[in-house]
Amino acid sequence: MKKWIILAAAAVLGVGLSLFFRYYHGSNPYQKAEKIHWITSVPVSLNVAKKNNRPLFLDFYATWCEYCQLMEKTSYQNRSVIRLSHHFVMTRINIDKHKALTEYFGIQGLPTIIFASFKNGEIGRLEGYIPPDELSHVMHEVALLGQNQKK
């Protein structure tokens, strides 16, 4: 009987140690830190959007913009926003490096997010800081709109 208890305890300890090391070394698939995968080239984004028939998410920002930094720290770290980002071609456009694009899209304040369809052009835009829940809601609605247009 003692032998069985010792074997069971060793098995439980082994499983526990295995889970512990997986968790702390990042190999546990349920603990991976996801993030948004940004494209910084509009021509590349347009190509990906056309090829995959997905809407564009264009984030116009500047490194000196406090609300842009706040979006990066809050909204773009939100799990729901990250999950929904897979339905879009996520594109970041630094207005200081892409002045012509900034003028073309009529960007007046930061941050500005433009949702666009490769076929139909601009779907809508958001200006200023957008909290995670609000951004998630809008992204969900735009993704649904895009799915309905594919049918």
Report on the structure:
With 151 residues, this protein is of the alpha+beta class. It folds into 2 domains: 1-32; 42-150, Glutaredoxin (3-Layer(aba) Sandwich), CATH 3.40.30. 48% of the residues lie in helices and 17% in strands. The protein has helices at residues 2-24, 42-52, 66-73, 79-84, 99-104, 132-150, and strands spanning 56-61, 89-94, 112-117, 121-127. It has a 4-stranded mixed sheet with strand order 2-1-3-4, covered by helices on one side. A hairpin with a 3-residue loop joins strand 3 and strand 4 (121-127).
Would you kindly provide a brief summary of this structure?
The chain has 151 residues and is of the alpha+beta class. Helix content is 48%, strand content 17%.
- Average pLDDT works out at 83
Beta-strand fraction estimate: 15-25%
Overall CATH architecture of the largest domain: 3-Layer(aba) Sandwich
CA gyration radius, whole angstroms: 22 Å
Number of strands: 4
Q: Strand order, biggest sheet?
A: 2-1-3-4
Main sheet? 4 strands, mixed
Q: How would you sum up the global shape?
A: globular
CATH class (first level) name of the largest domain: Alpha Beta
User: Total helix count?
Assistant: 6
Name the assembly state.
single chain
At the fourth CATH level, what is the homologous superfamily of the largest domain? Glutaredoxin
The residue fraction in helices comes out at 40-55%
Which H/E pattern describes the elements? Answer: HHEHHEHEEH
Question: How many distinct folded domains?
Answer: 2
Instruction: Quote the distance from N terminus to C terminus.
Output: 64 Å
Structural class: alpha+beta
- In CATH, the topology of the largest domain is named Glutaredoxin
User: Are there runs of 5+ residues with pLDDT below 50, and where?
Assistant: 7-32
